[in-house]
Design brief:
The protein is α/β, with parallel strands linked by helices and about 260 residues long. It contains 8 helices and 10 strands. The strands form 2 sheets. The protein has a 7-stranded mixed beta sheet, sandwiched between helices. The chain has a 3-stranded antiparallel beta sheet with strand order 6-7-8, with no helix packed on it. The longest helix is centred in the N-terminal third of the chain and has 17 residues.
Amino acid sequence: MTIKQKHHEQKEKVQIQAHNRVKQYILKEGVPVPFLIDLGVMNEQGKIIHARYDKFRQINRFLEFIEDILPHLPQNREITILDFGCGTGDISFQYLQYQPTHKVLGIDASKTGIEFATETARLSDYKTATFLEGTDHTVKQLEENSFDGVILSNVLDVMPKDVSKEVVEDLERVLKPGGYWFIKMNPYYSKEELESFGYENMGNNIYEENHIMRLRQATTNYWKERFARFGKEIIYLEFEYPWQEGMNRLFVYQS
């Protein structure tokens, strides 16, 4: 599949400014950001595309989370982050917009997603980003204790329990002692909400739509009990996306 994207002149990285979270965004409308242009969120002049404004707000919300986490990371050496299940690289690029000198490795099973992420990184001149098509078997080949942080965004709750367990074990091996887990989960939905989505309960809290697994439903307490093995809970937040019912859940742990 050919990914057609327009090449942009390299622009100065956006400065992250102190902000009032109620009134201001970290990324400013009117300031062109290459990866947002490539994602179709803004135009060349920095104007937000009306139909993509929710995405713009989502990205800013994520950057607020990064701002909370960054003070905990080592400041005197190179930082490496693994984004497992990275898709088209949205979260990797959001992270790099804030910390362009950090190294990020994105892994995803989708060939199309990885092609898109790789091309976006090239056009936006993110030289420290690498994207690989792969699965947990790819993680098994990575060096032990080689990453300062692991990002899992809507990954563990769209896998069967046994697969999720194996993925976590593989990721634990490559995370450095004292490293950080950044885990974002879908909302916990009521039975009525799940039925309204057209999801079919397949048993073991697994829900499918047209024979495709969409969700492994689990409570926040369930996930906290599972994540306790990681170490210290640093952050737990619930937040809304304008286009999605329910409260998304963010867990940050230090190993």
